Amino acid sequence: MNVKRTDVSPLVSAPTKVKEQGTDCIIDAESVYNNLPASAINLSLLTRTIANRPANEDTSVISVTSRTTQKQLQTFIKKLSDAVEQKQAECDEQERKISELSALIEMQEKEIEIRLTNLEDNVKELKEDSELFERYARTAIENTKYQVRKLDVQNILNENELKKNGEQADSIRGIVL
């Protein structure tokens, strides 16, 4: 019996979801159907044929074919079950990786927040230090100006005293002479 793989799809009706949570892994029905052994498709057709056969028809050939096909179908079902388990394992691994990445991202977000807070605190401290330094600098400049004026006054007083002492010395010399 020749069967085209695309004309019968009674065994697989829709994509099968392997996992509900997180990222769904889907087994494509068409790909599964296209990988069915011909005997599995034949079993499906054979089942229909048996259901539609006349009551007096000999079923011994059908029975032998059915057992062989059933063994092949069981092998296929086992392979399909293994494939589903493998997909489930892949989904679990992907879910684990996603969880790890999510945790890493969350940890990095917290670290970034802490660093930003520290930077903001540092900027605030630098601004306060800058304002304080500016006040100290202005005070130092004013003190320096005051000291310079004080020295200027002292120099003027010293010059006046020198002149006065010089005049007194001249007058004493003049008296002595």
Runs with pLDDT <50, length 5+? 1-26
Helix content: over 70%
Beta percentage is under 5%
How many strands? 2
Q: What is the number of helical segments per DSSP (H or I, 4+ residues)?
A: 3
Tell me the structural class. mainly alpha
Which descriptor suits the 3D outline?
A: rod-shaped
Average residue-wise pLDDT: 76
Q: How many strands, which pairing sense, and closed or not: the largest β-sheet?
A: 2 strands, antiparallel
Distance between the terminal alpha carbons, to the nearest Å?
159 Å
Helices and strands, in order, run as EEHHH
Please state the CA-atom Rg, rounded to the nearest Å: 51 Å
Strand arrangement across the biggest beta sheet:
1-2
What keywords describe this structure?
3 helices, disordered N terminus, mainly alpha, 177 residues, two-stranded antiparallel ribbon
Describe the protein.
A two-stranded antiparallel ribbon has the order 1-2. The chain contains 3 helices and 2 strands. It has helices at 29-34, 38-52, 60-176, and strands spanning 16-17, 26-27. Helix 2 crosses helix 3 (60-176). A hairpin with an 8-residue loop joins strand 1 and strand 2. It is an all-alpha fold and 177 residues long. The model is unreliable at 1-26 (pLDDT under 50). Helices cover 78% and strands 2% of the residues. Keywords: Coiled coil. Residues 77-136 form a coiled coil.
Short note summarizing the structure:
Keywords: Coiled coil. By secondary structure, this protein is mainly α.
